[in-house]
Write a structure and sequence with these properties.
Strand content: 15-25%
Mean pLDDT: 93
Number of domains: 2
Number of helices: 9
Helix content: 10-25%
Low-confidence stretches: 409-418
CATH superfamily of the largest domain: FAD/NAD(P)-binding domain
Oligomer: single chain
Shape: globular
Length: 418
């Protein structure tokens, strides 16, 4: 499909990842004319910004895009990077997606005038599906380091890194998995920890994700939580689906030679300085994991489920002292696993709060006809993932249909326009 400069399209979806494709599927089912603008190609986010051994941390059975549930031979396994790309490409081929690839939206103005790298179009309604991982976030301390450094989105495999020891900063999902990848390859790894929690892979006979799904956790709307902002911006629990799935236990890595530190504080260009909070960070991660097990135990007891007993986790290593400095001599590279920031600077419509976050209710903004899809915790835990984006896409498209019929939704309220 080609984009025609000056054309008017009833609905424009910006972004051709899983959120944009799910929205397109529902628009197609409703018979609504639309176009999907994709800056690169379908699956490029997974293909170009994930390392070689990357795999999902949620089981394959949770991959359930609209009209395209996972039907492979390993529902309890975890798709690796190239399989994820293939899943999205197959989804794209499963229905007639009106997508234009290689075209980036560069400006969205009032009246839904959309400037792109291939011309300007207008729309009655716009769905922003650009995802949460747009601009790599680096701390200012990175400017003062003279060693080679890269963001986690640029990491591919241990062989791309220069000789020497490697410092990984950040213990979210990416940081822990990259540290493990390097550790398994025999590299000496230094890991600066943070406050990210962890979760067990399996407990009492099932994947913990399966237990939480049964317990209704993944269908719980964010408005049911007392601390909405804390939930929306919290760091994901670290765990892995590698080799069939397992825990990531930083204490075990320490026993095997990985060197753990507290939070990175500062540098004088010769050495790095860390906070004295390593033990606290490890204890916090373990406490969250054990708390999840407590909730599973309570659910099993309440429902009378016959599940095998399992001994609780016991720490295999304790820091006897917390190293507070690390010489940069011998460090071959630093990998920053410090997350991403949204980049909505191209959007000139006032739908953002003081922090630059889109103000919305389930993706419906205060600007009639403008929507977001694929935001983390847009409505539920699964909103930004394969498991829950289908429900969000259906909700947004239902609102699009209603608005076209004369019903305007604003901040969760609606009125019929005569």
């Amino acid at each position: 499909m080609q984009l025609i400069d000056g054309a008017h399209v009833p609905v424009v979806v910006v972004g051709g990842g899983q959120a944009g494709l799910a929205t397109s599927w529902h628009l197609t089912a409703q018979g609504l004319e639309h176009v999907v603008l994709e800056a690169e190609s379908v699956g490029s986010e997974w293909r170009n910004r994930r390392w070689d051994s990357f795999c999902l941390v949620t089981p394959n059975w949770q991959c359930s895009l609209p009209g395209f549930p996972y039907d492979g031979t390993d529902p309890d396994g975890f798709m690796v990077r190239d399989e994820i790309v293939g899943y999205l490409e197959s989804y794209r081929q499963s229905y007639d997606v009106p997508i234009v690839e290689g075209v980036r939206a560069t400006r969205l103005e009032h009246g839904f005038r959309i400037t792109t790298t291939a011309g300007t179009i207008t729309a009655d309604q716009v769905v922003v599906a650009t995802g949460p991982y747009q601009r790599p976030s680096l701390p200012r301390i990175a400017e003062r380091l003279v060693v080679p450094q890269l963001h986690s989105s640029q990491y591919r495999n241990p062989d791309q890194l220069p000789p020497g020891e490697i410092l990984v900063v950040g213990t979210g999902q990416s940081g822990c998995q990259i540290a493990e990848d390097l550790h398994l390859a025999g590299r000496t790894v230094h890991l600066a920890t943070g406050s990210a929690p962890r979760v067990a892979r399996f407990y009492r006979g099932l994947d913990v994700v399966a237990w939480l799904d049964r317990m209704g956790y993944y269908s719980k709307g964010i408005d049911e939580f007392d601390d909405v902002d804390a939930v929306r911006f919290r760091v994901n629990h670290y765990v892995t689906g590698r080799d069939g799935g397992r825990d990531i236990d930083l204490r075990k890595f320490a026993l095997e030679g990985m060197r753990l530190y507290g939070r990175l504080l500062d540098t004088d260009r010769q050495e790095l300085r860390f906070a004295d909070d390593l033990a606290q960070n490890l204890d916090h991660a373990d406490a969250v994991s054990e708390g999840i097990k407590d909730s599973i135990d309570a659910y099993i007891a309440a429902e009378g489920i016959d599940a095998p007993e399992e001994p609780r986790y016991r720490p295999v290593w304790e820091p006897t002292e917390t190293p507070e400095t690390l010489s940069l001599q011998g460090i071959g590279a630093v990998i920053w696993s410090t997350g991403f920031r949204r980049d909505d600077s191209w959007i000139q419509v006032p739908v953002f709060d003081g922090r630059g976050y889109p103000t919305h209710r389930r993706g419906v903004t205060s600007e009639p006809g403008m929507y977001f899809i694929g935001l983390p915790w847009q409505h539920t835990w699964g909103s930004g993932r394969f498991g829950g984006v289908a429900d969000d896409a259906r909700y947004v498209v239902d609102r699009i249909v209603e608005q076209r019929a004369g019903v305007h939704w604003i901040a969760g309220l609606h009125r019929t326009v005569a």
